[in-house]
Amino acid sequence: MKKKWYDNLWIVSLTYLVLGFFNILFAWLGLLCFFIPLIIAIAGGNKAYCNRYCGRGQLFGLLGGRFGLSRRKDIPKWMKSKFFRYGFLVFFLTMFLLMLWNTYLVFAGVRELRQVVTLLWTFKLPWQWAYHGTLFHPGAAQFAFGFYSVMLTSTVLGLITMVLFKPRSWCVYCPMGTMTQLICRAKNGAP
Predict the structure, then answer these.
(1) Which of 39, 71, 112, 172 is the most buried (most CB within 10 A)?
(2) Burial (CB count within 10 angstroms: exposed 0-12, middle 13-18, buried 19+), residue 111
(3) Please, which residues bridge with residue 116 across strands?
(4) pLDDT for 70-108, tens place per residue?
(5) Could you report the per-residue pLDDT of 109-127, keeping only the tens digit for each?
(6) What is the pLDDT of residue 3?
(7) Which one, of 52, 69, 61, lies nearest residue 177 by Cα?
(8) How many CA atoms lie within 13 A of 93 on its CB side?
């Protein structure tokens, strides 16, 4: 089978993580991974992004499949359940809104910039080397630290489920996948 241009989008996901490690402002590029799936789902009424263009899913497929870093076990039924997927989506959106609130506080001058990446919403990793001030308001950097935290956390969760289960197990409960599925159902009139 001939490779298509989008078969190597895993490189984009990996590049994003590396760039954010060296300069946190690159985290803003992650918004593309947030809006493009939603736009595709709204415009096309399908999950083409998840099935074809998601670089993170491709990365997990590559690491777990070709490089054999996956146990290739079925994901537990409870992780496939609507309760878990929708619950995780609500939790993830809550964490995203909290990140936006912290960004607002820095923009409003109520709080100082925290040069920290929070991994798994718990572990605060100092990340000072990745930001040295710019022409932008510190709130822009606060958003970048928060968004990079979200992206890094979801990547780590994906890697964990990739190792424990099948390579693309993250895709089963990915918040973006759940949101695009809801959009597609609403657009196509499915229950």
Answers:
(1) 172
(2) middle
(3) 126
(4) 999 999 999 999 999 999 999 999 999 999 999 999 999
(5) 999 999 999 998 889 998 8
(6) 87
(7) 52
(8) 10
Three-state secondary structure call for residue 77: helix
What is the per-residue DSSP string for 5-54?
Answer: GGGGTHHHHHHHHHHHHH-GGGGGGGHHHHHHHHHHHHHHSS-HIIIII-
Q: Which amino acid, one-letter code, is at 61?
A: G
CA distance 107 to 143: 10
Enter the tokens of residue 183: 């959009």
CB 40 within 8 A of CB 180: yes
For 152, the token pair is: 């890094």
Residue 143's alpha-carbon distances to 30, 109, 156, in angstroms, are: 11, 14, 20
Report the pLDDT value the prediction gives residue 189, as an integer from 0 to 100: 80
Whether residue 7 contacts residue 138, with contact meaning beta carbons closer than 8 Å, is answered with no
Tokens read off for 123: 């572990």
Indicate the burial class of 124 (C-beta count within 10 angstroms; 0-12, 13-18, 19 or more).
Answer: exposed
- Single-letter code of the amino acid located at 29: L
131 φ/ψ angles, rounded to the nearest 5 degrees: -150, 125
Where are any strands of DSSP class E within 65-177?
116-119, 123-126
How far, in Å, CA of 5 to CA of 134, rounded?
34
